[in-house]
Amino acid sequence: MKQIKLSKRLLTVASLVRNGSVVADIGTDHAYIPIYLVQNGISKRAIATDINEGPILRARQNIIENGLRDKIACYVASGLDGIEPQEPTDITICGMGGELIAKIIDASSYIRNDGVNLILQPMTSALELREYLQNGFEIYNEKVVFEDGKYYQIICARYDGKPRKYTSVELEMGKINIESGEKIFLDFLEYTILKKKKILKGLIAGNCNTEKIEAEIRELEALR
After folding, report:
1. Exposure of 28 in the CB half-sphere (CA atoms within 13 A)
2. β 135-147/150-163 pair status
3. Are 76 and 103 in contact (CB under 8 A)?
C-alpha cells in the first residue's frame, strides 16, 4: 500500500468532505480523492465513477494496489447515473467545466435529498455554475486555490429548494469568497481585474463597445 498524496487543488477539495461520509467522486480519473479519503479515515467507503473505460481501468488498478477493493466501488457511469443504491452523503465533481457540472447536477434527483453535500471544482465557467445553483441550492462554502500558475474556485452546495439572486460580481467571484477577504481571494481579485483590463485594451483597439467590460472592472475594483 502506498500513501496517496494529492495536489493542493485536490487536497483542498478533500478537506471539504465530511468525516464519516460516504463519498462519490464523479469523473474520478485515477481515483486519487476516494483513495485518499478512505486511507485517512475521512470517508468510511467511496464510489469512483467516470464516463470512460480508460480512467476506470487506472482507478481500479490504484484501488487494488492500495488494498481498498472492499471499501471503494468503481465503475463506468455517465455523471451521477446509478449512484443512488450506494447512498453517498458527499459528492465531489472536479476537473470539468462549470456548465457540464451544472448539467450533471440537473440530471440527478438523488442530490436533492437531505444531507447530500456537493463539493464542486469547475475548471472554467464558475459564474455559469453559480448561476445554475442559485435556483434551489445553498452555497455554504467556497475556496480559492492557486496551483501551478492558475487560480481554481471550489464551491460547496446543498439543495434546499430556495431560490437566490446573486449579483453579477457574486456570480463571478463567489459571495462567500468576497466576504472572507482572504489573501488568496484578494490575489485572485487582482488577477481577474488585470485580465479584464487586457480584454478592455483589445476592445478599445478594435473600436468595440466597452461599456460592459468597464462596468465589470468597476464592480471588481469596488471589492478592494
Report:
1. 36
2. antiparallel
3. no
Q: What is the DSSP string of 121-171?
A: EESS-HHHHHHHHTEEEEEEEEEEEEETTEEEEEEEEEEEEEE----HHHH
The reply to whether CATH 3.40.50.150 applies to domain 8-165 is: yes
Question: Residue 140 corresponds to which amino acid?
Answer: Y
Q: Which three cell numbers stand for residue 224?
A: 478592494
pLDDT digit string (tens) for 13-45?
999 999 999 999 999 989 999 999 999 999 999
What are the residue ranges spanned by the domains of the chain? 8-165, 181-224
- Are 177 and 39 in contact by the 8 Å Cβ rule? The answer is no
Give the three-class secondary structure for 199. Answer: helix
Task: Give this prediction's pTM.
Answer: 0.96
